[in-house]
Amino acid sequence: MKVAVLFSGGKDSCFAVWYALHQGWDVAALITVFSENPDSFMFHTPNVVWTRLQAETMSLPLFEIATEGVKEKELGDLKNGIADILKRQDFTALLSGAILSEYQKTRIDHICEDLQLRSFAPFWHKDPLMLLEEEVALGFEFVLSSCAAAGLGREWLGKRIDSRSVEELTRLAARFNVNPAFEGGEAETFVTDAPIFRKRVMILEAEKQWRLDAGRFLIKRAVLAGK
């Protein structure tokens, strides 16, 4: 089966690529949405430009869709963008890393139905903590590219998530009711290495931006480097 993956560069979309490849599916396309709205209801925005490096290290074709990020209208941009990609690249199913967001999943499902594509969300309603632990155990390395939840202060921006970090997040989840998979917008991630990467992404320069109780870790320069 030929599939496309909605790809933000975060842990769950990278894991969705891993999942597809381990199902023996042909990953025909990675689809990244570039939204002008940093507070998009639908799309991950920090550091999406660096999905180009991730696609390169996986040797997978990357297609980009632009949107202003206006709520609901951005869904039309996504649908039209996928329809255009289908004219150039053949696939029959679309994968997403959705875990708990009914808002995201139902809208992706409707777009797929309109375009006569199958819609897969392999991690749908999977236990968030178990999912995070599985990703770390499999060798996915990622940093927090945004924080917007109680307990996740400025010190978490750019922090690499490893087994020790997972223990900290478990305590924070219990204390502050934070979703450890960050599905509620508590945080966003950027993957720097994975079992399916030939090379890792080395961050050379980044900037932390923090305002009131939320912030972003913005990558300024990055390259592919040997493992």
Quick take:
The protein has 227 residues and is α/β, with parallel strands linked by helices. It is 33% helix and 29% strand.
Number of DSSP-assigned strands: 9
Briefly, what CATH class of the largest domain?
Alpha Beta
Question: What's the CATH H-level superfamily name of the largest domain?
Answer: HUPs
Q: Which topology of the largest domain does CATH recognise?
A: Rossmann fold
Low-confidence stretches: none
Task: Compute the separation of the termini in Å.
Answer: 31 Å
Strand order of the largest sheet: 3-2-1-4-5
Which band does the percent of strand residues land in? Answer: 25-35%
Question: How many H/I helices?
Answer: 6
Fraction of residues in helix: 25-40%
Number of domains: 2
Chain-averaged pLDDT: 94
Radius of gyration: 17 Å
Name the overall outline. globular
Largest sheet: 5 strands, parallel
What does this structure look like?
- This protein has helices spanning 11-22, 51-58, 73-88, 102-115, 128-137, 163-176; strands at residues 2-6, 26-35, 62-67, 93-95, 118-120, 141-147, 187-193, 200-211, 214-225.
- It has 2 domains: 2-120, HUPs (Rossmann fold, 3-Layer(aba) Sandwich); 128-225, putative n-type atp pyrophosphatase, domain 2, CATH 3.90.1490.10.
- Helix 3 (73-88) packs across helix 4 (102-115).
- The protein contains 6 helices and 9 strands; from the N terminus they run E-H-E-H-E-H-E-H-E-H-E-H-E-E-E.
- The protein has 227 residues and is α/β, with parallel strands linked by helices.
- A hairpin with a 2-residue loop joins strand 8 and strand 9.
- It has a 5-stranded parallel β-sheet with strand order 3-2-1-4-5, with helices on both faces.
